[in-house]
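User: Last request for today: this protein with manganese (II) ion, please.
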Amino acid sequence: MNKGSLKTYREKRNFRRTPEPEERRKKRNGKKPIFTVQKHAARQLHYDFRLQVGQKLKSWAVPKGPSVDPEDKRMAVEVEDHPLAYADFEGVIPDGEYGAGTVMVWDTGTFQNISKQDHQEVTITRALESGQVAVWLQGKKLKGGYALRRIAAGKKPRWLLIKMRDEEADTRRDLTKIETKSVLSGRTMKQITKEAEASEAPC
Ligand code: MN
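Assistant: Here's the final one, the structure of the complex with manganese (II) ion:
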């Protein structure tokens, strides 16, 4: 599978049925790259963690979501790249479609690549290849350093998402439990679901 293309993303979806975006948005040149975390109530609830690399979003499905506790390493399964326009997608993927269920933009912001190898700064592309990524997040909920460490290769590589030890680390808070609303719309999962159903209902 060519992870650097959006072929897999497109093949999995019927864009006449799903409200998810088909095209990438206008290029974001010279700006800080963005990250997004989408809470996704698919067959199994998870959080999709996405980092902008070039004009795409590198993506991981994190079953328990990100933690602010450095001791609490979270499993993150690498999934297909998503188009940049996906970053602010919020709504309901209809039954029968891939990933059917409600999607909330749980957090978003910009990030800085702070990955290093042998004490030298490396590009995010190089860091992803090596399986050792470090980013500094400037989101509304997630802030500071996060590391992604690949622990198993294969068709769906497994990584760990780990909060770094910095001033934003907190061993007492469970962020996914406290923060349950969209940073885009302020809505809960229930409200997003209800409003999508209401707009679909025949008059
Ligand atoms: Mn998902």
